[in-house]
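note to self — DONT lose this again. spent like an hour looking for the file last time. sequence + predicted structure for the chain T wanted, 158 res
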Amino acid sequence: MKKKINSASSGLIIGGVILFMFGLLMILRVNPLLSLFSQVIPDVQVIEVVGVISQFIGQALVVFGAMRSTAHNLISNMQAERRITMEGFNQSVQQFQSKLLSEQQALKTGYTQAMAKIDALMANQKAALPKAVLPSNCKFCGAQIQQSRFCPQCGKAN
C-alpha cells in the first residue's frame, strides 16, 4: 500500500510538472504542438489563456501530490511513534505490576508473621496471669459473695 500511495503521489507531481511545462511552452510559443493548436484555435490569446490554465492545473497537481506524499509520511511516522510509545508504556505497566505483586507478597508474609507473634504473645500472657475470682455483691441483700452463685445470707441466686 505504501508503494501505491508514493507512486500515485509521484505520478501527480510528475504529471503536474509536465502539464506546467506544457502550459509555459504554450505561453512562450515554443511548443511543437502549437501549430496543431493554431489550426484548431486560430486566436493567439485563447492559446495563451489555455497555457495559463494548464500551468495553474499543473501547479495544483504538484502541490496536491506533494501534500499527499507528506501526509502519508507523517501518518506512518505518527503510527510508528505511537507503537513505540505504547510498547514503552506497556513495559512500564508490567514492571509496576510485578513490583506491586512482590510488595503485596512481602506485606502478606510480614502480616502473617506479625499475627503469629501476636497470637503467641497473647497465649503467653493468658498463661502467665493467675485466674482470680473477683468478689461480687448480692443483688437482693448486698452481702459479699465469694465463689458461689448463691448468697450465703439470703440464699437467693444472683
